[in-house]
């Protein structure tokens, strides 16, 4: 009985795994087609100054509009692209496109345009020896100044050390800023802040979510702004969804925040509010 049962269990799992592998292969193949036929597009989410909401920077986020399946989240397809290697080509397209867009904003909007643009880079891109050169060429081709660009990486991607850390040094030498994304949720090590060049700490949404609850919930958000200030880093609070969270973050000393409360990711965020916030008509 035991043998038969475990045999059946094995077969059942094997089918399940086959299905998963099949889905992964299918999605992987569709990514190739999507890249060739222009199904990806970029959106930009504001990173704003507290409390007035002037747009200081934007984060570039990729979107996939699948012709049959509709919207597919980057949470679902970035890991597949990472595993099948297509992230190199997709990531290069994202980087070039974002640099060109930022460059156009400066040409069209001048100082109403955001100061910085962030682009996410995945572990495999960072580990590649040619990544810093790719960034340099995207900057050169678009005419964007290196000091305008921020590359967002996760702690986990640089945790292992090795080539990813070399890449960060090369990027930093170019003048590009480095942001640690989702800070506090990965292979967190405060020691990382001393060994890799970091300019920006993006405090993860999970620490913002609980900030207005009674009790000990603001402890981590409080500690992280102190770490950032103490090390001379810029802190950005991620995933701010309410006015209460924004007020509490400001009270704790956060100067920058990102989240649906301030702006969703859009193809063309409304930067005119930067001009308006300088001279508030309501105040006249
Ligand atoms: P991330 O880099 O931490 O990006 C922030 C994510 O949080 C985005 O989801 C954004 O839409 C979402 N978000 C922003 N504000 C709020 C909020 O107030 N509430 C909630 N619930 N969510 C908020 P998105 O665009 O789905 O991206 C998810 C993840 O996918 C990103 O996390 C990043 O890890 C990855 N990703 C997205 N675009 C790219 C890309 O161009 N390249 C790479 N390598 N990864 C990307
Ligand atoms: Mg990010
Ligand atoms: Mg993030
Ligand atoms: Mg996050």
UniProtKB/TrEMBL annotation:
Keywords: Membrane, Transmembrane, Transmembrane helix
Residues of the EAL domain: 24-279
UniProt key word Cytoplasm: no
Glycosyltransferase as UniProt keyword: no
The name this protein goes by in its record: Diguanylate cyclase
Species the sequence originates in: Couchioplanes caeruleus subsp. caeruleus
From-to range in the entire protein, with total length: 461 to 744 of 744
């Amino acid at each position: 009985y035991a043998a038969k049962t475990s045999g059946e269990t094995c077969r059942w799992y094997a089918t399940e795994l086959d299905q998963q592998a099949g889905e992964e292969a299918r999605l992987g193949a569709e990514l190739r087609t999507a890249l060739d036929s222009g199904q990806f597009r970029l959106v930009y989410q504001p990173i704003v100054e507290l409390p007035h909401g002037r747009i200081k920077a934007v984060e570039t986020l990729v979107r996939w509009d699948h012709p049959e399946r509709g919207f597919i989240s980057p949470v679902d397809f970035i890991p597949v692209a990472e595993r099948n290697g297509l992230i190199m080509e997709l990531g290069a397209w994202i980087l070039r496109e974002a640099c060109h867009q930022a460059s156009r904003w400066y040409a069209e909007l001048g100082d109403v345009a955001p100061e910085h643009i962030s682009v996410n880079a995945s572990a495999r891109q960072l580990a590649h020896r040619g990544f810093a050169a790719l960034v340099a060429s995207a900057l050169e081709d678009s005419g964007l100044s290196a000091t305008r660009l921020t590359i967002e990486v996760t702690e986990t991607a640089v945790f292992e050390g090795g080539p990813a850390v070399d890449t960060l040094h090369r990027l930093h030498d170019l003048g590009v800023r480095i942001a640690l994304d989702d800070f506090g949720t990965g292979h967190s090590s405060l020691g990382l802040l001393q060994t890799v060049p970091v300019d920006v700490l993006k405090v993860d949404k999970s620490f913002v979510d609980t900030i207005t609850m009674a009790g000990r919930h603001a402890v981590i958000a409080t500690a992280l702004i102190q770490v950032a200030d103490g090390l001379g880093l810029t802190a950005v609070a991620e995933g701010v969804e309410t006015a209460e969270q924004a007020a509490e973050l400001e009270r704790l000393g956060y100067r920058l925040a990102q989240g649906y409360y301030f702006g969703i990711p859009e193809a063309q965020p409304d930067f005119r509010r930067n001009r308006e916030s300088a001279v508030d008509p309501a105040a006249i």
